[in-house]
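Table S2 (text version). Query chain:
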Amino acid sequence: MKYWLYVFSLLIICAACDPSRVYEENHTIEKNLWYIDTMLTFTFTIEDTTVPYNIYYNVRNAVSYPYHNLYLTYYLYDEQGKQLSGRLQDLTLFDATTGKPLGDGLGDIFDHQILSMPAYSFKRKGTYTFKVKQYMRQDPLPDIMSVGIRVEKATKPNA
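Corresponding structure-token output:
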């Protein structure tokens, strides 16, 4: 019995290791109401400029979210505060035809990890800031529980 406990513990530890992840953080949206003037800020460090990076959004929403999509605007800044990139993006949270929630869910809560910036190459080592805000017509936007980003080394496709 002790043997299986050790094996199970080792599997848990190995599953927690993610060598491609450089940064991941989520911000809880207070009272699940995201106001249009609330800018979420994420600061991370890039040490290796020889590989490209994928930047993902992490979005957690309730099934009662009133839309099938979520418009977000992001801004990426370098250490000097120079804007390197910025863009309005449309994230699909529910199937537009069936209304079925996308992402991983349990009960009435769904988590999404949606690629925002694929294979982005950072020119210099240093600290970068990624800011994001909602760009929907409703203010506040209900039933968004948390928003975050994940920065990971992009894996090279198999040749």
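Notes on Table S2: Helices lie at 2-16. The longest strand covers residues 109-120.
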